[in-house]
Amino acid sequence: xxxxxxxxxxxxxxxxxxxxxxxxxxxxxxxxxxxxxxxxxxxxxxxxxxxxxxxxxxxxxxxxxxxxxxxxxxxxxxxxxxxxxxxxxxxxxxxxxxxxxxxxxxxxxxxxxxxxxxxxxxxxxxxxxxxxxxxxxxxxxxxxxxxxxxxxxxxxxxxxxxxxxxxxxxxxxxxxxxxxxxxxxxxxxxxxxxxx
Length: 196
Hints:
Number of strands: 7
Number of helices: 8
Helix content: 40-55%
Distance between the termini: 24 Å
Strand order of the largest sheet: 1-2-3-4-5-7-6
Number of domains: 1
Radius of gyration: 16 Å
Shape: globular
CATH architecture: 3-Layer(aba) Sandwich
Order of helices and strands: EHHHEEHHHEHEHEE
Largest sheet: 7 strands, mixed
CATH superfamily: Gcn5-related N-acetyltransferase (GNAT)
CATH topology: Aminopeptidase
């Protein structure tokens, strides 16, 4: 069943995120405690959404987006500052190089404030045993419907330039390559998608 995520799904979505998203990207590198805060925030926020695929009472996949990425980030920091601070400090103490990525992310977020496309498709994950069954496409369809209902006309997506699977999926879902940029010293592709 494809449906909107509930708070009770957060443990499973965070686990999938930590397990299947490349650790070179900051959110996965910050670990499951951070991902739980992030996912719970997106579920509860008027600026975010998570769609899940549930099979036999287990989450087999999820996708997430922010209707207004800068506003969602601001809301997360303001509402969960104390939890974020503890979680991020713990991660930085374990791996100090994360601090540089956090600074780079804040610089990147400042640049994206000027982008007229505020909505951002963040993550899509399907458990390997459930891939090639159309689950990602069904989750994406519900995500599009949610965005359309919110009046979103365009959404952006970023993908590691060398990640063949993610870039293939972006093309399959009709995202258009809009350019490239560097984040964390990694070349990234920037995609745009017309929701309507």
